[in-house]
Amino acid sequence: MALTLDKIVIAAFVIIGCVFVVVALFSSWLLSPKAPSREKESTYECGVPPVGPPWIQFRIGYYVYALLFVLFDIETVFLYPWAVAYRQITGWYIFVEMLVFVVILIGALFYAWKEGALEWR
Amino acid sequence: MNVAYAALRVLAGLGLMLANGVVLIYMLRKVLGHLHVRLGPMEVGPKGIVQTTADVLKLLTKEDPTPAAVDKVIYFIAPAVVFVPSLMAYAALPFSAKWHITDLNLGLLYTFSILSLIPLGILMAGWASSNKWSLFGGMRAVAQQIACEVPLLLAALPVVLLAGSLNMNDIVKAQAGYWLGFIPAWFWIPMFPALILYLISALIETNQTPFDMSEAESELVAGFATEYASMKFGLLFLSEFSNLFVQSALIVTLFFGGWLIPFVPLELQQKIGISAPVVFMLKTYLVIFVMMWIRGTLPRVRIDHMMSLGWKILLPVSVSWAMITAFVVKLAEVGR
Predict the structure, then answer these.
(1) How far apart are CA B74 and CA A40, in angstroms?
(2) Could you tell me the residue ranges of all domains in chain A?
(3) Is the ipTM of this complex over 0.90?
(4) Which of A10, A75, B132, B334 has the fewest CB atoms within 10 Å around its CB?
(5) pLDDT digits (tens, 9 = 90+) for B80-102
(6) What is the reported pTM?
């Protein structure tokens, strides 16, 4: 892997971004008044302490969305190289192959839909 | 030498991001103000023009109380995880044929993948805040960004298919011709359904108002940012406004001919080097204005409606449109 200018710039983005965050937070820490009290450090609520822990269990349907998302995100990862090469390859087979792939995945989406995985409750 | 050069380029990106943040917040207040038939900020400076600068200074000098219940490490890292990717998203934007921070071969894919890191930071902020409102905001943000991520990518796909490249400058140059001799060959005309799909997905992705359930102030106080104050809050919001700019710049690049000026020969545009970036910025700010207009016009959508919009309408329609485009391109190829 050659270290091209592109890669140096991307690495510089990560480093300078992190440095900027540190500088911004540090300068605000230097400039701001500090007078902590129990009231300020309490969790934001409507005047009463919150009941129960905040880290509650989420219903399982939320994770079904995540699974579906991974499925379709991988589909798009396959679709992008296909789209870039599409006009350079003559003949219908490039279209038909992707059509079969997409139809299977859309079938999966409609199955999930019928099973009620797409109902947000 | 190379490193200093790279650092200068990144600092230019950072400067643009900060300037965008200040200008966009002022613009949002003015546009929303006039849409509501009021004036917006008027006091600080002529027409209130230095209001946001004053606000930044105020944010910088505010006390930053850390709530006792938060998960300290994640709470402090989260603003950085939100901010750094939204800064990195500037890397591949094509301001003109020569003005870009880097000319990545896979620019579009790079930008999409960097932008999809942001929900992670938002979820971290919501989770670490140890506040029920924040957690709901974070969970909603991730759910809605997941629901629109795939339609967003699929709406950009037909454009990539027509341009045959993921390099953003190539995508712009593919739109340089004319149809019937006088209509600029920008992709928004043949790809109008894709533009609508992309616009809706981009509104969801940037948490703009018809879809701002993750920070719905009337339901969740301030969503994932409830427990944040001072500069940490500033970083979260700067990145939000910066994402608005990046998404609008992507819309301009993909559908509205990027830095191209219609009816001016390409050689002349490249000779007057400064015209292209100015036109790119103007087009981008026009798209941002339309987004703010939508924000000032439509009421907030309910979360379950948004989820079914994303999964049951946007996703099947965008897949079908991509395949229809592919089919028509093949038909045209056979006809030739």
Answers:
(1) 20
(2) 60-115
(3) no
(4) B334
(5) 888 999 988 888 888 877 777 88
(6) 0.88
